[in-house]
Design goal:
heterotrimer; A mainly alpha (314); B mainly alpha (329); C alpha/beta (265); A: 314 residues; mainly alpha; 13 helices; B: mainly alpha; 75% helix; disordered C terminus; nucleotide-binding (chain C)
């Protein structure tokens, strides 16, 4: 809540915190009201939704792959989604709805790839190889994206804005376009949470408890793709959010995935919004790309997880 | 002890690298025939050919040759030190850190330090941090690698911050570094790289026997009389130096450091670090990748880093994902 | 293959620790020359740490390991490697390395800047291959060998070092009975040729049979030391492993044989 307020109150524009507050309560100057409700409110909402989606996606992926480092950004899911969007922009796509769909398709492909990867014999138990495979995928997709940027200078500017990740300057319409997918994903999570908790005991144990591991995995793949695709459509590929949010949530909830997922609901939005506020304040009056801020916050968390010896257990 | 197979492999690779150099010198907007290229190199050709080959192309091809060799040697050393074929400077974040520092020296208004020195400093800093975070395990074990991945991500982000904050001209000047290109080199840093490579090779020849024992477990290396700490520091130092200097010339073309030793290992007799073969392979890779980048979509030029990423990543994925690669860790 | 040189190895008041955790305190032992010494004891008693301490792999916190009366950590590592060879427990080798390549590594301590592969090196190499009986395997890659063959190859590398001292850390762990005997008999032969050998052994019965001298450890302390026939008793077995047993002399060799092993009542 505090961060929501901060996000509305502080920003690069020449609007003081006090002015912003009065705008919120309804009696500010027209300029201030415009800045706060038209510029910052959508931005705040988009950041919150992105955080929610990425946090949940990270928690789901980590639980399913039993790998605390499985993160949409690190594993190349976001890059897949970003690549798809870049391709769409290059081919001339402009409407927000289309972008969302394309991003989700890209995320689905990336996600399927990751899941396939973890199914390879022995790899699911080896976090480092998974991470490296993800880093390689990301590198490959970025290289392809760079190549497209070189081919078409006009598209390049738009793509470059995308691939660093930002929640600024996006219209509320894009939020509307992603809303159905997010609602669908949330419903799926509610359905799948209990079997997923059983999966934590191992596939055979889950089978013994009467669940269908294959079906659960399929549903989770879809859910993660919906979430990451929406998040990428909203804010571009944001690395490390899916790592940081479940990490914080797990610190409070313990190993139970259901509690972790619930905690991701407030933590996710708070993290991305916080990062967005930082990105506005640190470099004021200019802004730092949001993706850069999350990378700077996330990398130390990654190192913390690696340093704490408990890594392979989840 | 003579080793005919390795000698043969190195001879073939040398010929191949030389051929690629000549081919690369002859190819471009102005085509020069192979015989003419050779003539130009020996100094007797018409002024136009002389200019194109010796002035325009030679320095670029030399830069590719040297940086490819340096990256490959650095990769081979790091893999041996970590006893993990995936632990190359690129993956451990050294490339990215060196790039970040080099970019800082290009875009930084007040900074007049040469990119070479800055890249070296970046490489050293990243290694030191990765070491510190890896804790007691040193370069062994997964912590070093994952710590490096994190450092690489931070360095990448910092590079982007710098590029996004400076004027567009400065950003464009530094951009090639961030993807890896032979276009961005300064003659100065190529000379420094050449010197570093020469020093590095001498040091490697002098210590090759001790370095070879690092392929075994620590206990075996010590039992064979290797001064473990000194040898490791030397190997790591050389690896960091070569990476930093190479990055200051060509940017983070990290996959060369992974692919070249891998190829060399396939060709050579197992059991020894194939440093020589790796260096030759790396040089050949770099030259050919640059050649492809220059010619494929000419006049548009694809940076060499993008070519190696597109060619190398699938191979890396294959290494990572093929079932039961026992030798990985 | 005889060694004109002998070397003595002893630990004097050494304290060994892993980080904060002290494994053994104030240990003093010496290896009887030209004999096989077995270090035995329950899991975690510090026997491998002691062996690594003797081999300068693990630096003691205090006290010193003396090789020919000199502190082993002050001697140049290469000089030590010409007197003392070690077969560690963790002996992974690079992929595809052949037996001959591995054994050649054993000559490294005798080579230098100006001294490349010499006639002497070649002779030692061939002798080691013969001694460990790996001539037929010499061009095979290590990772294609059976456990017993691989262990023999590693022993050949240690033999090629031509050291008067040889330390082995659990040379027969993970080997089946046939391969165990193969390795132990090789160790005996080497000892008869004049090497001073120390080995950590898991199996008390094999230690009784193949060692001349036994060091029994428990919780970081040496509780008994001497010839197996003298020191191994039902009481010692009980103290070491917490089991009861009876002992009878082996009908062919006379070394003690454990029978009727059971839980303490």
């Amino acid at each position: 809540m505090l961060i929501v307020l901060a996000s509305l109150l502080y920003g690069a524009g020449p609007v003081s915190a006090a002015q912003a507050f009065s705008a919120l309560t309804g009696d500010g100057t027209s300029d201030a009201t415009f800045v706060v409700t038209e510029l910052r409110l959508p931005r705040t909402l988009i950041a919150m939704t992105t955080g929610l989606a990425l946090g949940l996606a990270g928690a789901l992926l980590q639980s399913m792959t039993r790998n605390p480092l499985a993160e949409p950004g690190l594993l190349g899911v976001s890059a897949g989604s970003g690549f798809a969007v870049a391709l769409a922009i290059l081919l001339g796509a402009t409407t927000t709805t289309l972008t969302t769909l394309v991003a989700q398709a890209g995320a689905l492909a990336g996600c399927a790839l990751v899941i396939a990867t973890t199914r390879v014999q022995g790899l699911g138990n080896d976090p480092v190889r998974l991470i490296l495979a993800g880093a390689t995928m990301t590198g490959l997709l970025l290289a392809l994206t760079s190549m497209m940027m070189l081919m078409d200078q006009r598209a390049a500017d738009e793509i470059r804005f995308w691939i660093t990740g930002s929640v600024a300057g996006k219209p509320l319409a894009i939020l509307k376009a992603t809303l159905p997918s997010i609602v669908l994903a949330l419903t799926l999570i509610v359905l799948v949470a209990r079997p997923l908790a059983a999966m934590a005991l191992g596939e055979k144990a889950a089978l013994g408890l009467g669940h269908h591991p294959g079906r659960i995995r399929f549903l989770i793949t879809i859910t993660v793709a919906l979430l990451v695709g929406s998040a990428t459509a909203l804010a571009g590929p944001l690395i490390f959010v899916g790592l940081v949010v479940p990490f914080i949530a797990r610190a409070f909830s313990g190993p139970d995935i259901r509690k972790t997922l619930w905690l991701c609901v407030p933590v996710g939005p708070a993290v991305v919004l916080g990062a967005d506020v930082i990105s506005r304040l640190v470099a004021a009056p200019a802004e730092m790309p949001l993706g850069v801020v999350t990378a700077l916050i996330g990398a130390p968390v990654l190192l913390t997880i690696v340093r704490s010896g408990r890594m392979p257990s989840l | 002890m003579p080793d005919s197979r390795n000698l043969l492999v190195n001879a073939i690779l040398s010929v191949l690298a030389l051929f690629l150099v000549v081919l690369s010198l002859s190819t471009g907007t102005v085509q020069v025939s192979l015989p003419d290229t050779l003539k130009a190199l020996s100094g007797n050709a018409d002024p136009m050919t002389l200019f194109v080959v010796n002035e325009l192309r030679l320095s670029r091809v030399m830069a590719g040759l040297l940086s490819g060799a340096a990256l490959a040697i650095a990769g081979c050393l790091m893999q041996t030190l970590a006893r993990n074929r995936l632990a190359t400077p690129g993956i451990i974040g050294i490339d990215n850190a060196a790039t970040a520092f080099a970019v800082a020296s290009v875009v930084g208004a007040g900074l007049s330090v040469a990119p070479s020195a800055m890249a070296l400093a970046g490489a050293a800093a990243a290694t030191a941090i990765a070491f510190g975070l890896a804790g007691a395990n040193g370069t062994r074990g997964y912590r070093f690698i994952v710590a490096g991945v994190g450092i690489g991500a931070i360095a990448g982000a910092v590079t982007q911050v710098m590029l996004s904050r400076v004027a567009i001209d400065a950003a464009n000047a530094a951009y090639p570094w961030t993807v890896g290109s032979l276009n961005a080199r300064s003659e100065h840093s190529v000379t420094i790289l050449g010197l570093g490579l020469a020093i590095g090779c001498l040091a490697l020849i002098a210590t090759s026997r001790a370095l070879n024992t690092l392929q075994f477990s620590d206990a075996v290396a010590i039992a064979l009389g290797t001064r473990l700490k000194a040898t490791r520091i030397l190997g790591l130092g050389l690896s960091v130096m070569l990476t930093g200097l190479a990055v200051s010339v060509c940017g983070p073309v990290g996959l060369i450091a992974l692919l070249a030793p891998e190829f060399a290992r396939m060709l050579c007799r197992p059991g020894k670090m194939p440093l020589m073969a790796a260096a030759l392979t790396g040089a050949a890779f770099m030259v050919i990748a640059d050649l492809i980048g220059r010619t494929l979509f000419a006049p548009l030029e694809i940076p060499v880093g993008i070519i190696t990423a597109i060619v190398g990543s699938p191979y890396l994925l294959w290494i990572l994902l093929r079932p039961s690669p026992r030798s990985l860790t | 293959m005889s060694h004109t040189t002998t070397a003595t190895l002893a630990a004097e008041h050494i304290t060994l620790a892993h980080g904060q955790f002290t494994v053994a305190e104030n240990l003093s032992i010496r290896l009887p020359p030209e004999k096989v010494t077995a270090i035995v004891g329950p899991n975690g008693c510090g026997k491998s740490t002691l062996l690594n301490g003797l081999a300068r792999i693990h630096k003691p916190r205090s006290g010193s390991v003396l090789l020919d009366g000199k502190d082993i950590h002050r001697l140049p590592s290469k000089d030590v490697a010409r007197k003392l060879a070690l077969l560690p427990q963790d002996n992974s080798a690079p992929e595809g390395l052949t037996v001959a390549d591995l054994v050649r590594f054993g000559r490294q301590p005798h080579q230098g800047w100006m001294k490349q592969w010499s006639v002497e090196d070649q002779q030692a190499f061939e002798a080691a291959i013969r001694a460990a009986d790996v001539s037929d395997l010499s061009e095979r890659a290590l990772d294609t060998l059976s456990g017993g063959q691989r262990q023999r190859a590693w022993i050949a590398m240690a033999v090629a070092q031509q050291t008067p001292l040889l330390l082995l850390d659990e040379p027969t762990s993970a080997l089946d009975l046939g391969h165990q005997i193969e390795v132990f008999e090789l160790i005996r032969t080497l000892s008869q040729q004049g090497k001073t050998i120390a080995m950590v052994v898991h199996d008390l019965a094999s230690a009784c049979r193949y060692a001349d001298h036994m060091i029994a450890m428990k919780a970081g302390e040496v509780i008994e030391e001497g010839a197996p026939a003298h020191i191994v008793s039902p009481e010692l077995v009980r103290e070491l492993y917490g089991v009861q047993c009876d002992l009878i002399p082996d009908p062919s060799t006379g070394s003690p044989l454990l029978v009727n092993v059971r839980r303490c009542t």
